[in-house]
Amino acid sequence: MLEQVKKLHSMTLTISDIIDQTDVDQLLDLVEFREKVIKSLQSCNEPVPEEIQFMLREIQYCNDIIVGRIRELMEEAAAGLQSFNRFSQQKKVYEQAYTANSYFVDKRN
Questions:
Q1: Mean pLDDT of 83-109
Q2: Distance from first CA to last CA of the chain, Å, rounded?
Q3: What is residue 87's predicted lDDT score, i.e. its pLDDT?
Q4: By the 8 A CB rule, do 33 and 11 touch?
Q5: Cα(11)–Cα(80) distance, rounded to whole angstroms?
Q6: Statement: residue 89 has pLDDT above 70
Q7: Cα distance between residue 52 and residue 54, in whole Å
């Protein structure tokens, strides 16, 4: 258990130090590992040692930084989806106005 918490602590501090360069995959790995460690701690029937409690408090302190980055990435993704949807709608309107195999006849004499 101690090794897992140490690894989570290290991952959390590293990611919080480079939060602006962190991508979705790194955050997803952290969240998944964090869930694993939390389940392990919850299933443990022993008292949590002071060393682990200290690392958990530091992890919790970094939580706001990491959640903020996750929100930024979600907003970027939402903006990208909106842009894609606008483009799709514009393309659809254009394609509806265009009829294939049609002819334009100019009747000017």
A1: 72
A2: 90
A3: 85
A4: yes
A5: 29
A6: yes
A7: 5
pLDDT tens digit sequence for 24-81:
899 999 999 999 999 998 888 888 889 999 999 999 999 889 999 889 999 999 999 9
Buried b (16+ CB within 10 A) or exposed e, 10-33: ebbeebbeebeebeeebbeebeee
Location of structure tokens 């842009």 = 83
Q: How far does CA 66 lie from the centroid of its chain?
A: 10
> How far is residue 101's CA from residue 6's CA, in Å, rounded to a whole number?
68
Q: How far apart are CA 31 and CA 62, in angstroms?
A: 13
| 58 in Cβ contact with 13 (< 8 Å) | yes
Residue type at 5? Answer: V
